[in-house]
Amino acid sequence: MDNWLKNNNVLKALSLIIAIMLWLVVNMEQTANPSLTPIDQRENAYIYEANVIPKYNEEQYVVDVLTKRVTVTLKSNTRTIGEIQDGKMIDKGQFFVDLTSYKKGTFDVPIQYTGFPRGIDIDIQPRTLKVKIEEKHRIEMPILVDQLGKAAEGFQTGDAIVTPSKVHISGTKEEVESVAFVKAFINVENANKMITEQVPLHALDKKGNPVKVEITPQTAEVKIPVTSPYQMVPLTYKIIDQPKAGLAIQSIDLKTKDVTLYGPEEIVSKYEVYQGPNVSVANLPIGKNSIQLKIPVASGLYKTEPDQIQLEITIVKSEKKDFKNIGIDLNGLSKGLKGIIISPTTINLTLEGAPDILRSTRNDDIQAFVDLTNLPPGEHEVELQYNVPLYTKVINTKEKVKVRIVKE
């Protein structure tokens, strides 16, 4: 052993081994405990882009911001940066330029910030914002409506109803003066009924290009009437039966006098009067009866307005009244012929109806006649026909008249 210790090479080797061991011990301690500073206190950074908000008198000025976004570097400890990355703080921070003391012109304005907690180092690139400030001009303009497309076949659109009818536009003098129209665009393709929409407004120059101005309000309510060709005509109805035995109609009050027909022009133009529904009175009791019936839509029409008919029918007990010596008329004779009544030359008849109607009926209100249409010369027995006051009827209706037809 003593000989080894006296050996110079052995001592050198031992020294090298001891040095290596000491180096390993030191480095292992550093690896196990690399810093005396806690991890959450070490410095870290977060980089993102943010918008810059100009603060100014919006009633008096228009501001054009040439660069609206900046690159932001936040430096702080690891915990704080982690919270920022998790979105807990980033929304609270705000970058802005304060233009409240600036007048008209172009300026490089320092960017300010607010909303960040203490302990954060904030770097902004660029640090200033170039802005152009101009006086705000404001004018009032009417809203024009452009209808896009075509209504359904047989329908047509009317003039637009716009609320409000005018808006204010504001911006720089150059911008405002370049506005030729404020328009609302609305789609009417295949429309078959009224269109009502809240429509955004667009400021356009004379070539139809958009102009960047402020529009107040930004939308308008647009109503587009959609109709087919129409015509208003009198409305009629048809009584298809009689009241119960011993009863009569005293009056019918038609509440719906006229009807508007919608359809193709070539169809609606043919109507001078419109036949409404058939009305049955067979089961109506004594008194006033209110009836509401749907108006039929004839072939080729789109609709009717109104779509229902309303009547008030008064039913009373019937009475009878005799009428004597009623003259007989000859109707329907062909040209060059004349008729001679052989017998009877006058008739007696009985009418049944409402008492008030019968009381006011006279002989002149009753027409008895025979129809000689297309009959040749000679003697003929022809059934007697009558025109009597409304809501009355003839009791003895089977009588015939003998007539002779001769050439003139």
From TrEMBL:
Superkingdom as given in the UniProt entry: Bacteria
Record InterPro entries: c-di-AMP_regulator (IPR053154), YbbR (IPR012505)
Protein name: YbbR domain-containing protein
Origin species: Tepidibacillus fermentans
Residues annotated as signal peptide: none
Pfam family, one: YbbR
